[in-house]
């Protein structure tokens, strides 16, 4: 029981130190910490986005933090090491949660802040992310808004191994908003991702087959070049001029047809005016965002443009 109590005491102490550091290093972008026991004392590694704010002028702030940790939590000779997050800040859940909370406190709309956070995480190369904002978002009643993109694991041992989670609080006039960020990092490997390793004998067979394929391709290329050199005049006679296609952007010459309608045609896979000319009014009206009237006007005016 004594050993179990020791483990519980150490883990609770670790959580209390983490909460203390989050409050002390507020605004510097706290990204997590690890505690290691060494013969020299206790080493505390902190990941921070802005290290200058933690160190302070002449190291005054960091000295004060070490003294507070020694007194409050009874830590033997604490040594704080600061690590800059740098380019990995966008993939750190705690840093992103704090940034989102700061944005909400500055007056950003919760949807804009949530979507921009998700975009930034996915742009940094994350496999997936989820942002949860809860509190009095619009009215007097509490509600929760979720912003999810990519692949997410919610529970189980894989979620513990694969997901990085962060939490922050935004203090607004209406009340407090809770912010949770979960990130699946690019290097995270899921249990269903399997690499099949071939035996050595099969590898040799595949290598030899690849060599044979390469040799065959080279021979085929040589034969092609010979035939091209021997009969260049025949090819010239065979080639015929392809009919030129008119770009679909010319639809904007019709009054009442803007670039938005041209984009809708492009989405539907129509790229030239000739393709539009072959379609009737019903076909054009079936395209999303194009009504019956616009379809009829396009058919009437299209003949003039093609002439």
Condensed summary:
The chain is α+β, with helices and mostly antiparallel strands and 307 residues long.
Describe what you observe in this structure.
The chain is an alpha+beta fold and 307 residues long. The chain folds into three domains: 2-84, GMP Synthetase, Chain A, domain 3 (2-Layer Sandwich); 90-184, Ribosomal protein S3 C-terminal domain; 248-306, 5' to 3' exonuclease, C-terminal subdomain (DNA polymerase, domain 1, Orthogonal Bundle). The chain contains twelve helices and seven strands. It has helices spanning 2-24, 51-55, 60-73, 93-105, 110-123, 156-162, 200-230, 232-238, 259-267, 273-278, 281-286, 292-306, and strands at residues 30-38, 41-48, 78-84, 128-135, 143-150, 163-171, 176-184. The chain has a four-stranded antiparallel beta sheet with strand order 5-4-7-6. β4 and β5 form a beta hairpin.
Q: How does the SSE layout of this entry go?
A:
Elements (H helix, E strand, L loop, with lengths): L1 H23 L5 E9 L2 E8 L2 H5 L4 H14 L4 E7 L8 H13 L4 H14 L4 E8 L7 E8 L5 H7 E9 L4 E9 L15 H31 L1 H7 L20 H9 L5 H6 L2 H6 L5 H15 L1
Parallel strand pairs: 2-3
Antiparallel strand pairs: 1-2, 4-5, 4-7, 6-7
Helix pairs in contact: 4-5
